[in-house]
Amino acid sequence: MAPQNRKLRIGMVSPYGWDLPGGVQAHIQDLALYCMEKGHEVSVLAPVMDDDHLPSWVQSSGRPVSIPYNGAVARVAFGPVANRRVRKWIQEGDFDLLHLHEPAIPSLSLLACWAAEGPLVGTFHVSAPKQRAIYAVGPILEPAIEKLHARIAVSQTARGTLTEHLETDAVVIPNGINVDAFANGGITEEFGNRAIGFVGRFDEPRKGLAILLDSCERLVEQGVEFCLVVAGPGDSSSFLEGMSARLRERTHFLGRVTDARKREILRSVALYVAPNTGGESFGIILAEALAAGAPVIASDLPAFRDVLEDGRAGVLFPNEDSQRLAEIIEKVLNDNERRSLLKEIGRERARDFDWSVVGESIFDVYRLVSATGEKVRLGSELRFNRVGRNP
Fold first, then answer.
1. How many of the other CB atoms lie within 10 Å of CB of 54?
2. Taken in order 379, 382, 388, 391, is the CA torsion positive or negative?
3. What is the C-alpha to C-alpha distance for residues 235 and 189, in angstroms, rounded to an integer?
4. Structural domains of the chain, ranges and CATH numbers in brackets
5. Is 175 helix (H, G, I), strand (E, B) or coil?
6. Which of 337, 345, 197 lies closest to 265, judged by CA?
7. Global pTM?
8. Cβ atoms within 10 A of the Cβ of 210, count?
9. Is pLDDT of 44 > 90?
10. C-beta separation of 275 from 209 below 8 A
11. Distance CA 391, CA 52 (A)
12. Per-residue pLDDT tens digits for 357-375
């Protein structure tokens, strides 16, 4: 058995464009930083649009392409050029292990899984129970996934997708957050003390902003005092055009914000609402809101139920039911005692997702797969046909 304090050289692969916001990229970045803080060496390979400002530990595989995926647009890299860059990175890396994120979709992690031999770990983030085609990347997919020495799913929902589509299993280790950073962030008074927060790519329908806006229109009609704070990338014009004048005047679209600004928003709102309608495998923003001390109201998606412990650490509402959401927002907004209790329970729950817990769980897996001292090496060369898929 390898010693517990053995320093590892770890290769991590992101399937999605590094310079675009996303939960998977954030997870990989934070995990890489955690590993480096513990004295390990890390190299991340990712598709990149603009590599002028990459940290030294991130290598570009080239520009990504956009494909529809799981109710959104994924920016991935696949095909002969990406395959050559993956193989070159593996050959030069001298890695003790590879950690491949989303190795069951057509992007870099799958290419690395095909190319590499030796200690391999795969993390499965996606929840797509009705979209088998996402996982159906030809008959060689399942043998590739079987090469993994260990499989991690970020939630029971993600684990269920994996077992359903690929008939294999995984240990559940959630996404991680830096709890102290959110708990001790700045606070702003610019939104008053009755602000409702929403953070995410709001022009993706599955993020549910339209549901929240409908609820807010009901609140305006009922004379409830509040303001709405929306942060994240997206075009707000179509939403603003469809809103009443009274709701527009109390709504703040902030656009894409820095991590520090996001923490400040979550620390400052009276409520955080996650009205997502589907496609969520975990809900990292819920964990961040809990850590920041924001009482959380969320749709009753299975992944959100897991994070909120079936309603103990936050309030759940029936998915896509804007009337019920409005009723819950009004009740919680007007109940200071309940919000204080939700803050206390939420902060306690958030500790389960701190990197001090999550990182060590992942390292237990790393130690297991690297115990023999075997190095990652290249396997046989892949041959692609004209459409960029293996024959």
1. 15
2. negative
3. 26
4. 9-176+354-378 (3.40.50.2000), 179-352 (3.40.50.2000)
5. coil
6. 197
7. 0.87
8. 17
9. yes
10. yes
11. 36
12. 999 999 999 999 999 999 9
